[in-house]
Amino acid sequence: PRTIYLQDYAPFGWQVQSAHLTFRLAPEATRVVSRLHFAPNPGAPAQDFFLHGEELTLIRASIDGEEITPEVTPEGLRCEVPSGPFLFEAEVEIAPAKNTALEGLYMSNGMYCTQCEAEGFRKITYYPDRPDVMAPFEVRIESDLPVLLSNGDKVEIGEGFAEWHDPWPKPSYLFALVAGELVNHAGQFTTRGGRDVELNVWVRPGDEHKCPFAMESLKTSMRWDEDVYGREYDLDIFNIVAVDDFNMGAMENKGLNIFNSSAVLASPDTSTDADFERIEAIIAHEYFHNWTGNRITCRDWFQLCLKEGLTVFRDQSFTADLRSAPVKRISDVLMLRARQFPEDQGPLAHPVRPESFQEINNFYTATVYEKGAEVIGMLKRLVGDEDYFKALDLYFERHDGDAATIEDWLAVFEDATGRDLSQFKRWYSQAGTPRLRYEESFADGTYTLTFHQHTPPTPGQEEKAPQVIPVAVGLLGPNGDEVVETRVLEVTEAEQSFSFEGLSAQPVPSVLRGFSAPVVLENDIPRETRLFLLAHDTDPFNRWEASRSLARESLMASVTEGAEPDGAWLDALGQVLSETGLEPAFRALMLGVPAQAELARALHEKGVTPDPEAIWTASERLAQTMAARWEGMLPALAEEAKVEADYVPDAEQSGKRALGSAVLALQTRLDGGAAALAAFDGATNMTQQLAALSCLVRAGRDKQALEAFHAQWKNDKLVMNKWFGLQIALAGPDVAVERTEALVKHPQFDASNPNRFRAVLGALAGNHAGFHRADGHGYRLLADHLIDLDSRNPQTAARMAVAFQTWTRYDEGRQALMKAELERIAAKPGLSRDMSEMVSRMLG
Ligand code: HT7
Ligand code: ZN
């Protein structure tokens, strides 16, 4: 496959002045008639006229009304064109019912829908399918289906047809069409400027009651973007559609967002608190794209982080504002470490702005999204809130309507603040997680911190230069009082010192507060200091971090030396847990222990080959010890976690339920499942029901509860995904593979539905000890299913292949087994470009 390079960017030779599309929908033979007005692009180099097009049957084509016979290849169409403006017309035929890749126009449960980002539009018609070609679209849909939707505003809806007009020039990846038997949950929003906007959430009949939360989240997002970023909505209608078969979470098509039904449908009976929070965040994310992505889009796909990093940062800030900022920060860092760090530290490492790719779908990664958001957060920390918003205002003013680049983005910050960001730009080009270490010295009332930074090599990038690292630091006095409040130190050199004067005693530093930069802090901070920080740090993140690192060390000692869990840490943590002034959600997070995959990474970093069974045993032992040690405290915590009021998925109630679930998990270690059984039977919402079921699965007392759950929810696809996933994800290492094998044969397993596939095979990949079973059975099972899925849905198959990215960490036996599976996948005839790129990168 061909590799595309950032440095080869060249603008398209023509502009599309308007695009008019007519769709005559039929499952096996949809006709798409296009009328495209082209005019030469004065700034572009001379080139052939080439339009992207894949899997299309060309019926006819003409230029200025004259029939033509273009040269057609599997990638597109080439023809001679006039030197001035011209009208290109074409008619093509496509088969949405046969489209299993879920890119372009496809069908899901009898409904037509589209997914065009990144390069799906070329499967709909011939077009310059690249983000820097923007045009206003007029769309006519002809079909007997009752609901026919496209982007922009409604022009006319009649018997068997609908016409839509999107006045905002957009790239083809933001095009969308939906047709089906849908019902709407309607709402209304008046913008700050007085525009009345019709809002709709469209779902299958029967799902209406699961729409109100999404609608409220949408309105809250619209208001937040006005209040915080000064951004208003710009059309008279905003539609959201829920689709069951969808490769990712949701898509921000202009005025017509299409959502995976799991990211929109919510009710207390069927959704957990975590589902509600996720839905709220995804609704916000897609809505925020209207400005950061749609009004200002990307010049090319290398600039993906321009819209994604910024929009993730915006949705994270939204959740932090609406809920608890410290809890959100800890959750985001947990996610970053679980998903982005392994990427940055393994064979798939790439810069936030990659410089080459074969298949762009493979670069919708945690690095582009989550590390991309961290980079924005660092920029804001460095310039301060006021200058950040000044720069953002300039960005919107200067680039509205543009297809922009990271250079454009950094230039607005330079112009708004007068700063030189040339070194900061390395965050976009240098892959890998920087390592930071500090030394302390104290003399004559002056305390000095000396930082050292280095970034290990990553594939294709041997040498790394120092980064700009904002390190938030506070100092605590010997009695635990804060003697120096948080200050952001700008570390720019490989080695650099900062001094604090006028101190009466040597302080204890609290470094990298709020996780102020996406780095690994390498210090072996003495255990006593961590215990001190756990007890006294005023920064909630670092308080949590102190406990987490103590937990990690205790577990590592348990794995490598068979040590008992660290009693001093458990006692100190017990103290924190009983601080009733701390919010329950924070205490629930404090109760969390490092995931087994996190321990594997930590051991590997220390030069120890991780043994998945030993990690599992140590984790189980720790959970057992925690329960026994805190037995006396559990009833009081359970009491505090009680929610008497009617169910609301807000921060307060969900925090309490999170604490209650964590307590129930410990209780189950003591009573073998008696309390969990009672909680399962008495549950009044999905959060409680699933928490209780999880405890029973872990305790191996799940047979009846799983049957009851199935009987209750067998007709609800989204809830059934939980049922499938849970019993694999939480199974013991000896049974996880067998359970997966049984569940892929279950009549309700459907590999063509990405949610169901991910629920089952993703759960296996996420069960660390089960997946890494020494006989390689877990590896083989996953590889079999990835090979099978690749022929139908390469995008989802390739994304899930990342389960193998850590293969070089393990012992020789496991390495050989995983390598063999990767090679077996690579050797499969007809392997997709998506999968072949992923596997070859992992094999190195
Ligand atoms: N911008 C979207 C990214 C995306 C996508 C979404 C659904 C299906 C396939 C997709 N490929 C790329 C989602 C987002 O970041 O908001
Ligand atoms: Zn996005």
UniProtKB/TrEMBL annotation:
Keyword RNA-binding applies: no
GO biological process, one term: proteolysis
Entry EC number(s): 3.4.11.2
Keywords on record: Aminopeptidase, Hydrolase, Metal-binding, Metalloprotease, Protease, Zinc
UniProt domain Peptidase M1 alanyl aminopeptidase C-terminal: residue ranges: 528-843
EC supergroup of this enzyme: hydrolase
One Pfam family per UniProt: Peptidase_M1_N
Example GO molecular function: alanyl aminopeptidase activity
Domain Aminopeptidase N-like N-terminal: 99-174
Gene3D superfamilies: 2.60.40.1840, 3.30.2010.30, Neutral Protease Domain 2, Peptidase M1, alanyl aminopeptidase, C-terminal domain, tricorn interacting facor f3 domain
PANTHER family: PUROMYCIN-SENSITIVE AMINOPEPTIDASE
Name assigned to this protein: Aminopeptidase N
Native source organism of the sequence: Allosediminivita pacifica
